[in-house]
Structure formats: structure tokens, C-alpha cells
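User: My collaborator and I are trying to settle a disagreement about how two of our proteins should look. Neither of us wants to argue from intuition anymore, so we agreed to look at predicted structures for both before our next call. Could you fold the first one, then the second, and keep them clearly separated?

Assistant: That sounds like a sensible way to settle it. I'll keep them separate. The first protein:
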Amino acid sequence: RAAVLRLRQPRGVERSGRMSTEHGGAFAKQLASNDKKTRDKAVKVVRKYLAARADPTPQDYLKLWKALFYCMWHSDKPLVQHELAAQLAALVHVMPTFEASALYLSTFWATMAREWQGIDHHRLNKFLTLMRRVCFESFELLKKQGWAEERVLAIAQVLEEGPLSHRLGASQSGIRTHVCDVFVPELLRAGCESANVTHLLLEPFFGALGSAKDRPLLSRLAASVFEPLAMPETTPADGIRGDDSEEEEEAAALPAPEPSAAVEAEEEADPLEDDGGWGADASAADGLEQLAEATASLSTDDAAALEAELDKELEEFS
């Protein structure tokens, strides 16, 4: 039976589409702080929290990513945003098991899909940077695992069921296209030289190619994924940049996540009103089956209680 993910509007998202500064608890505010010492201390707490959980549940990581998403939302200044994005993505390496790391990645993509429509155009760039960093650290994780085939298949499944899922609605197309853009350069940056590994990681893109119904996605798959691999001399190899240039170009080219496409629309928008985290399309009803029970507890009614619970758990590692 298909599971339905109903990821409703969080309490922290105001009716105007802006994130409430009152939301997220003390922990989230510390992670988003412009003060490096405060921010580093909060990241250290998260590292301890993740390292201590050998058998986390999807709900554990969905709660955590809910707070981490707000941290990125509130982070100001490009240097702070880049550093925070790098730190959050690198947390995938601190888990005691590979399975926990894979769950951390899958719940990240579920969170991005859920929150995508609420990201206005002015904040889009930092979340594109975060997605790029997460892709890179996913490949770094595989490198540390010796590019073992079963591990590669697990990450390929994360991509297939997350950013490249056919269940994503048209309003979330920016997630798919950005992953297409960063896949080849970040895989090269991670030092992958195996044709077999590359082929296994390409399987989700072949699936996306087969299910694609819009011409822009087909064009992006061809231009950013398959053509560069077919013509290595034209493949971008600079990987993660030290500035915003690539993400700024991407943000400018992408349509703004609706309904916050412009400032005036942002004033009136209700970004996550009851159409579910995987888009308003009817196909979104399938969702991610393995996360169904966890996401049921992320409804509006108990969001504040979950955040309070997370803050309490993190305090034990402070």
C-alpha cells in the first residue's frame, strides 16, 4: 500500500512565506549564529549527538534536519553560509555506521523536498550550495568505504528515491536539475576513477531519463551528466568553489520555488499549505514508504513539541 507523506506547513513558516525568527529553539539559533565560536560549539554538539546514535530512526534524523534547515535559513553573510553548508554536509562522516550515514542523506533530501516550495528566491543560493556540498560528501563517504559496490548501490538508491525521484512534483524540478549539474564535477572532485562505480551511480539518472516528461530536465540530463562523461575533455573538474558564482548562476537560471517567486508574491504566499512535501501533483501521494511513519509525527500540531524534545536531547551532549 502506497504511503502518503503529508508534510504540512511547519510552525516556523509564517503565512507570508518567511521563516519565523522565534522558531527552531536555542540550538538552531546557535547553529545559525554569525559568531563563529557559537556556531562551532553548536556543530560540536551535533557531532556528539550523531556519533552516539548507532541505530537512529528516520524520525530522529527528520527532526534534526528540520532544525538544521532553519539554521541555513537564518544564516547570513556568504562566508557563514558556505562554512555552515560544509559543516552540515560533513556530518555524514561522524555516524558510527554506514547505514546511519545513508539515513542522514536520505532524510536530508526528504527535508529539501518538503521545504522547497517555501524557499524564496533570495535564499535559494545557500540551499543550492548545501545540496552541492551534500553530493560531494556523499561521494567522499563512498571513497572512505573503498567504493565498495554494496555501498555505492546504497547511495545510488538514496539519489533514486530522493532528488531524482519521479515522485517529485513539477514545483520541485530545481532539486533535480541542480543535482544533474553538480553530479559529474563533485564525483570527479571526490576522485572516482572507476567506470563500474560511475555506471552504478548513473543508474538513478537513467531512471530519471526514462521517466522524464519535461524537456528542460531531458536537456539538463544530456548537457550536464551524459555528454560530459562521453567527452571527458569538456568535463568541469573544479568541483566545489570557494565563492557563490556557480550557485548564483544556477539560482538565476532556475524558476523561483513557488509560491515565493518574487518579493510581492512572498508577501502573500502560503508556501507549504497542505499539498504535501513531495509536490502538489497526484503522483506525490506515493511518497517515500520507509519514512511514512516518521513524517506522520512532523505535522503542524506537534512540531513545537518535537523541537523541544530535540533541544533537550542535544543538551545532554553540550
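The second protein, kept apart from the first:
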Amino acid sequence: SGSSGHTFSKAPPGPTLAMLCCCGIEEPKKLELADAGVAGEDQKLTFVPITADTAKELNEDLPEQKLPASVRVLGEDGQFEVRLDKRSSGSYGFSLEYDFKDSVHADAKDPCLLLSLHGGAAQQWNTTCPEQRLKVGDRIVAVNGTSGASQAIFDVIKDTQEATLTIQRPKELKVPIKNCRALGLDIAYADSAVGLIIKKVNPGCVQKWNESATSKVSAGDRIVALDGTHTGDSEVAAATLLDQLKSKEGEATLTILSFPPL
């Protein structure tokens, strides 16, 4: 930490990134993860693509099937239902952010988030149902009736051919900042996470904004753009966002995805 008003500190060596690929399981890779303000935590996030290559490696049958097109809006809390069948395309077409069940969560809300979108059943869904299209940063609240920890949600998705997802769309907050050197935020980051994870809101520009805001920034929310737009199609890499934030002086606008409690 320092005079900038926000904390970025490296986690101790050790956390690793496991990735499924077409040839099976790769050697673990180092995971860039900052322990923002709490020393000694061994925190991990993981990124596992669910791809057509993975499906073929597992010798799965991929019969052609039509994607169900119906959408059921669940309520006013930003939740809706998506039905995906990966058998026609060979993949769900998304990658997920989730926490290992034996790790100390970098994000206390433990969300299972869409990290990237790349074809497959997700693209089919988005083409068929553009009014409820999947976006990077969407939270999977439940799959096929299973809810709870992100690890449990991921385990169901990776072992099924058809998935009924309950999706929670985060609120997108535009937070004007007068001085980027005094944000007052503790932040964690990883290449396998959606945006920069806000771990704590301390006295500073963001806390001052919260005082008059209807929807407030809180721990677990994600910074996804600095003076930019969150499209939901792809994201700026966390490390790039962090560099932008460190080098920015004066006024700026933060785009923050805010996840209401479940």
C-alpha cells in the first residue's frame, strides 16, 4: 500500500492455474494473484475452458440437436433462465471463474462467473435469444437445480451434456472519480478472474460516492473498465486494468459490476 489510497500486494508464491486442454491436463501454471491488504492468505482462482477439443478427448457422442429457444424471466433481481445443450456443437462455449473448494476465497461472495465466451452452445443461445444473451461477468446462480458454492456449480456443468442455468446479471455502476490516486480500495486480481476484485472499500473517492448512491460499491464487486465500456463480449485483462489504474491520475470513470446478495 502507499499514498495512492489503494492496495495492490502480491500473494506468496504457490497458487497455481490448472487448465484443461485438448491433450488432457496441462502442467499447472503460475496464477497471478494479488493479496490485497490481508497478508498470509493463500488464495486461488481457477480457469477451466470447456471446449470442443475437451469433449472429443473424452470421446463424447455429439448428435445434432436443436437448442431450446425459450427463456423464462425469474424476477426483478436480474435473474433469468438459460437452457444449453452442448451435443450439437461439442462445447458449452464458455470459460468459468470459480474457487477451489479447499482455497481461501479471493472473493467472499464465491461467485461462479462467465469468464469468456467462444462459440458453442452459448453462441447458439445468444443468436437465438439476443434479448437474454449471455455476457462475460454474468453469475451462474444454479445449474440443473444445484446452487451454492461455485465449485459445486462447476462440477455439475463439466459433467453434463445439457444445462439449465439460472443467471444473475450484475448491476453495472458508472462511478465518477475525481482523483484516481485516492480510490480507497483494496483490490485482488488474477488472469483467471473477471476484472479487478474489490476486497474492501476504505475511506476515499469510492466510499464518498457510496454515501449518496442508491446502489453502493461493496466487497466482491468487479472493476471491468476505466474510462471505457463493458460490452459483455470480451474483457480487458486484469493485469492491463491494473496498470491503467496505477498510472491514471486525476478524474476518471470506473465501470463496476455489482453483485447483489443471493
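Some points you might bring to the call about the second protein. Residues 9-74, 101-105 have pLDDT under 50 and may be disordered. DSSP finds five helices and 17 strands in the chain.
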